[in-house]
Amino acid sequence: MRILAIAAAFALGATAALADPVEGVWQTEVDDGAYAHVAIAPCGAKLCGTIARTFNAGGEYASPNVGKPIVWDMVAKGDGAYGDGKIWQPSTDKVYRSKMALSGNTLKVSGCVGPICKGQTWSRAN
């Protein structure tokens, strides 16, 4: 029984050690008067982000975008680089080809639709 408990502890430790450093909650920049907290987590072998909370000048509010995916199909490339993903900009309802660059508690997110590219710098919220 004790051996089983030790094995379980190692398995849980290994799972935590394998978590990608970009996983967690990120605060977006203000766009069209509002910003969001985005929860980034694995979705299969890739990474995805879902709008977890939304805020405007009055504080937290119940946006219809809460629970919607904002980043998907992101692939870790190594050294804090992510690519091959998509990102949705709620204020314009456009989906961009996307990449991300992680540096400490800062996540630079950028995306392009044809020749039009946009970017934001997100901050770790937790």
UniProtKB/TrEMBL annotation:
The keyword Signal applies. The keyword Lipoprotein does not apply. Residues 24-124 form the DUF2147 domain. InterPro entries: DUF2147 (IPR019223). Residues 1-19 form the signal peptide. It comes from the Bacteria. Pfam families: DUF2147. Keywords: Signal. PANTHER family: BLL5882 PROTEIN, BLR1215 PROTEIN. This is DUF2147 domain-containing protein.
